[in-house]
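Our preliminary data section would be incomplete without showing what the modeling component actually yields. Below, a chain of 248 amino acids is followed by its predicted structure, encoded as tokens that our downstream tools consume directly.
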Amino acid sequence: MSNGKQDPGHDEAETAKTAETAETAEADESTMAAAEESAEVEPAEEEIEDEAARAARLETEVAELHDQLLRALAETENQRRRSQREREEAVRYAAAPMLRDLLAVADNLQRALESVPGDAANQDGALKILLEGVQLTARELQTVFERHGIVKLDPMGERLNPHHHEAMFEVPDPEQPSGTIVQVVQSGYLLHDRLLRPAQVAVAKGQPAAKPAAESDEGAGTAANDDEAADGAAPNGGEPSGRADTSA
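Predicted structure:
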């Protein structure tokens, strides 16, 4: 038969059990809180890594776009300079066909001047006036040519240059080295730095180029030594003729 009072030992056991249960609950709550904090930290670290990778990718793209921009600017500048140079050359040499046709006029004026004998103009007053008019016209035409950058080639006595001269025939001339221009058949012209018409010339067919002086002196010395040896040798294998016979 139980009395109305509770057992003290039973109360202590219940209290201990309650405390243990409370501690277990607190431990579970701490574990869950730590797990939640870990779960929160891991996504944060992943987000940081993703942001770093994204930033590196963006920097790479920016560097590539900057390089493409510089290349495009350089190509645009080169194209602008090329177009400007082509435009300047087009303006500079645009009149080349017309000026090339005017060269025939200059040739005819020169032929007209050369066809008049030297004393004929002094003997005929009308011919003298006509000759002076042709000379004045020829000089004025040359002045116009020079004003527009046309330079007349005067290659007389020069070596043949295939870039500026056109050899028409050869002239035997032993006094001139081969390839020297000895006659100008038709004058040539340059438009600024570009050939407008090559000069038609005749070249000498003469002696080859002279040998260097050192080789000439060496050859002369060798010939002199050979002559001395030939003079000092006696005929038929005898003694040299320069030795006197003292037996008599």
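The first strand starts at residue 150 and ends at 153. The mean pLDDT is 77. Preliminary results of this kind motivate Aim 1 of the renewal.
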